[in-house]
C-alpha cells in the first residue's frame, strides 16, 4: 500500500518525516474564521456559499492556521488535504500540519490533491466516513515522495503554468456568459433591436400560444433500460439550458408506450423547485426524432407559429422569471401550477425577428460550449501532468541524475 516507486535522486519517506502536527491557539479568537473546502482549499468562512453556524464562545479553542499550513479535515479521504494561503482560525476538530523540512508548498499541495494520493489515503483509512477524523498517526505512516527541492520547484512551475491557462479560460468563459446574459436582457425585451427590425411586438399570455399537457410515466428505475431518448424532471435543472442539445437518459420501447412523446417545438417546464426563482425553468425540444418526457413536467405544444429556440431563451429571461416567482406557492418546496404558467405575459416579436434573435443567442451558446470543452481538455492535461510529474514518471528537463 505504501510502496512508491521513485526515480533516482528521489526519496520515499513517511509523511510524518516531512510534516508535523501543531495546535497553535495563540490568537484569543480575534482572527477570521476559516473553513476547509475540497476545491478551493482553506478559505475565509465569509466566502462560503452556505451559512455555517458556530458558537463565538468556542473561538478561543480554535486552532490557528497560517499560510503554508496543510489541514486534515473531515472530508480529506474524499478530496485530499486542504492547503492554506490565508491566516485565520479553524475548528479544533481539524489537524494542522506544518512542514518540518524545507519544501515547495505547491508541489505538496498538488500531490495531496492527486488521484493517486487520495486512493492511497482511502486505503489507509478504510472504514472512515463523513464526520470522522483522519488521525495524524494514520496520515503520518503513508509514504510520499521527497524529490530534491529544486525539482519540486521545477515541477510546481509547470503545474502553475497549467493552472494559469485554466484560470484564463475560466475567466474567458465567465466573460462570454455575462455577454450572453446582456444579450438576453436586451434582445429579449426589445431594448436593443437587431438591424432591419422595427415592427411592433405583441403582448400575449402563454395560454394563447398553444395547448398545455403534462408528462407521464418514467421513474428512475426505468432509465437506462433501452435506447429511446427520454428527459427526466431533474435533468431540466441539472443538464439543460434553454433548449435540449442532447439526451443523456434512455428507456425501452415498452416503457415508452406509457410515457409522453415529445413533439418538435414542445416547451417543457418544471413545476417545483427549492426557491421561487428556479421554479418553472423551461427547455425547448427543437428536434424531430422520437423522444419522451417523464411526469411532473408541464408542456406547451405551440399552435401559434413561433421559434421554439427563441421561446426557450425568452421563457428563462429575467422578466418572465419574476412572473413565475410571483406565482410560487410553498416554503421548503415551491410549486407553480399549470394555470399560473398559462397566465404569464410575454412580448412576441414577429417571426423573422424571433429567428434572428435565436440565431444570435444560439451562436453565443455554441461559443460557450466550445470554450467549456477546451477548458475540460486543459484540466485533463493538468491531471495527466500531475500523475506523471508528481511521481517522477516524467522528469523535468535537466533534473535527471
Residue stretches low in confidence (pLDDT < 50, at least 5 long) are: none
Count of alpha/pi helices: 11
- Helicity level: 25-40%
Number of strands: 23
Estimated structural class: alpha+beta
Amino-to-carboxy terminus distance: 27 Å
Which strand order spans the largest sheet, edge to edge or round the barrel? 12-21-17-19-14
Task: State the major sheet.
Answer: 5 strands, mixed
CATH architecture of the largest domain: Alpha-Beta Complex
> What share of the residues does DSSP label as strand, in percent?
15-25%
Mean pLDDT comes to 89
Which word captures the global form?
elongated
Looking at this structure, what is the CATH superfamily of the largest domain?
A: DNA methylase specificity domains
Number of domains: 3
Which fold does the CATH topology of the largest domain refer to?
Adenine-n6-DNA-methyltransferase TaqI, Chain A, domain 2
CATH class of the largest domain: Alpha Beta
As a whole number of angstroms, the C-alpha radius of gyration is: 27 Å
Strand and helix map with partners:
Layout: E1 11-14, E2 19-22, E3 34-37, E4 41-44, E5 63-65, E6 70-72, H1 76-79, E7 82-83, E8 88-90, E9 95-99, H2 105-113, H3 115-124, H4 136-140, E10 143-146, H5 149-187, E11 202-205, E12 210-214, E13 228-231, H6 233-238, E14 242-243, E15 249-251, H7 253-256, E16 260-261, E17 267-270, E18 272-273, E19 282-284, E20 292-293, E21 297-302, H8 308-314, H9 318-326, E22 334-335, H10 338-343, E23 345-348, H11 351-389
